[in-house]
Amino acid sequence: MTSNSDPITLCRSIVARDTPHPPTRSEYVRIGQEASQAAQRAYLLVKLRAHDWNLTATARSTGLANASNVTREIRKLGLIAEYQAAKKAGKISRGPRAVPASEIVPPDAQQSGAEDSPPHAPTHPHGADAPR
């Protein structure tokens, strides 16, 4: 997927590459998810560029709660290359919510598993960390 694809063109390409038989339910869901993600990606990229990569302003204009949610969406939607280019161009200053280089993992290299998660202290409603 190119970063300049608009959602309509992407949807047409998704449908065109499918086989001529009617889509199954899982194909229908997959196509919808791909189109939704492409639309979200395009929308966020437009907003980031409109606000010159100011994450707080982008959060406000998109309805996301804060800049950390924007960075989460950047990772989720595969906008890391664009983020890095903007950072290299000096548009993103190193702040408390900037994505550290050590945390940047390309989407195709991400693994889902607890082994990658940082250890967390167990919490229990009646444990030592319960409010008193």
Rounded to the nearest angstrom, the radius of gyration is 19 Å
Largest sheet: none
- Overall helicity: 40-55%
Instruction: Report the count of strand segments.
Output: 0
Judging from the principal axes of the Cα atoms, what is the shape?
elongated
> How many DSSP helices?
5
Content-based structural category: mainly alpha
Low-pLDDT residue spans: none
Q: H/E element string?
A: HHHHH
Beta-strand content: under 5%
State the separation between the terminal residues, measured CA to CA: 52 Å
- Give average pLDDT, whole number: 76
What does the secondary structure layout of this molecule look like, with pairings?
Blueprint: H1 7-17, H2 25-50, H3 55-62, H4 67-76, H5 80-88
Can you give a write-up of this model?
The chain has a domain at 7-95. It is built from five helices and no strands. It has helices at residues 7-17, 25-50, 55-62, 67-76, 80-88. Helix 1 runs antiparallel to helix 2 (25-50), helix 2 (25-50) crosses helix 3 and helix 3 (55-62) packs across helix 4. It is elongated.
Which features would summarize this protein structure in a list?
132 residues; mainly alpha; elongated
Short account of what is shown:
By secondary structure, the chain is an all-alpha fold. It has a domain at 7-95.
